[in-house]
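We were asked to recover a plausible sequence for a given structure. The inputs and outputs are reproduced exactly as logged, with field labels preserved.

PROBLEM: sequence recovery
POSITIONS: 238
GIVEN STRUCTURE:
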């Protein structure tokens, strides 16, 4: 394998051909969980040789966002594998930040396909400052034939209104499995309302906390009183 300080042109071309990549992050706590997520669809872009980003669609968890928003964290690794042609494994190491859907700029949005930007499930863009790039042989990675992208997620969210999506994200995306606050606490429909966790058989789901003092507008607050700042035009996790 080889190591680089930035993404070389040859690997940039390799990235363009891939149909799937994997995202790894971890809680800073020694007892916290490590998360690995697969990502499909045309959601990844190289902004320059040391900056990349991917558009994040809603799902039943928000571990990556919780880890990137954690104070002093931001560590993230992106991995691509060659499932056809010459063997190759590519890893991009960096520091990531969450740019919420409502905080994105026109320039950032222009880097992604229009159908992804307009998808009701679009919840954030993860922007990564890359400080290390490495390749490894990939000799044991099996061959797979790409058939097509799954459209189940897009079809499901296409039926939803923004308020429905915001309610879903408050419930499913407000806390990580370790109880760390995540992006579900920053939904426009519920701006300024405190969110509290409740146990859901191995998960920490969120709900509006009635009777509790609401945080200042533009902020989200977790149940233990920590305040996560998010002002319009800024990125959570910086």
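RECOVERED SEQUENCE:
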């Amino acid at each position: 394998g080889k190591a680089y300080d930035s993404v070389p042109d040859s690997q940039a071309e390799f990235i363009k051909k891939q149909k799937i990549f994997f995202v790894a992050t971890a809680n800073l706590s020694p007892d916290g969980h490590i998360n690995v997520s697969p990502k499909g669809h045309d959601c990844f872009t190289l902004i320059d040789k040391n900056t990349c980003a991917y558009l994040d669609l809603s799902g039943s968890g928000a571990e990556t966002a919780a880890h990137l928003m954690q104070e002093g964290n931001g560590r993230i690794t992106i991995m691509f594998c060659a499932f056809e042609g010459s063997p190759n494994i590519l890893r991009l190491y960096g520091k990531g930040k969450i740019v919420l859907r409502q905080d994105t700029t026109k320039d950032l949005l222009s880097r992604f396909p229009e159908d992804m930007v307009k998808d009701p499930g679009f919840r954030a863009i993860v922007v990564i400052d890359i400080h290390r790039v490495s390749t490894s042989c990939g000799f044991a990675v099996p061959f797979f034939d790409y058939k097509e992208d799954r459209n189940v997620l897009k079809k499901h969210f296409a039926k939803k209104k923004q308020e429905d999506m915001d309610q879903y994200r408050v419930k499913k995306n407000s806390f990580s499995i370790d109880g760390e606050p995540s992006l579900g606490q920053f939904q426009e429909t519920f701006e300024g309302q405190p969110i509290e966790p409740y146990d859901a058989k191995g998960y920490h789901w969120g709900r509006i906390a009635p009777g509790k003092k609401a945080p200042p507008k533009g902020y989200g607050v977790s149940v233990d009183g920590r305040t996560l700042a998010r002002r319009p035009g800024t990125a959570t996790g910086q």
